[in-house]
Amino acid sequence: MTKEELKKKIGQRIVELRTKKGWSQSDLARACNKDRQAVEKLENGKVNPTLYSLLEVSEALEVSLPSLVKF
C-alpha cells in the first residue's frame, strides 16, 4: 500500500465513522478542537496526519485508535 492509498483509506474511515454518528465535518472539528478545513483535508487524504491527530479524532468519534485505522 502506498502512502497516498493509506491516507485515502484513513480519510474514508473517518467519513464512515463521522456519518454514522450523524455529524458534519464542523461537528467533528469542534469535538477534536480543529477547524473544518483541517477535517476536510484529513478526510480527503490531503494531509499526512500525526499519530496524536489520529488519537484526537478517534477520541472525538468515541472509537479506539486501532478501530479508526481498521480497514
UniProtKB/TrEMBL annotation:
GO cellular component: cytosol
Domain called HTH cro/C1-type: residue spans: 14-68
GO molecular function, one term: DNA-binding transcription factor activity
Cited InterPro entries: Cro/C1-type_HTH, Lambda_DNA-bd_dom_sf, TransReg_Diox_bact_type
Classification via PROSITE patterns: HTH_CROC1
Annotated Pfam families: HTH_3 (PF01381)
Keywords: DNA-binding, Transcription, Transcription regulation
CDD domains named in the record: HTH_XRE
Xref: SUPFAM superfamilies: lambda repressor-like DNA-binding domains (SSF47413)
PANTHER family: HTH-TYPE TRANSCRIPTIONAL REGULATOR, HTH-TYPE TRANSCRIPTIONAL REGULATOR SUTR
Protein name: Helix-turn-helix transcriptional regulator
Gene3D superfamilies: lambda repressor-like DNA-binding domains (1.10.260.40)
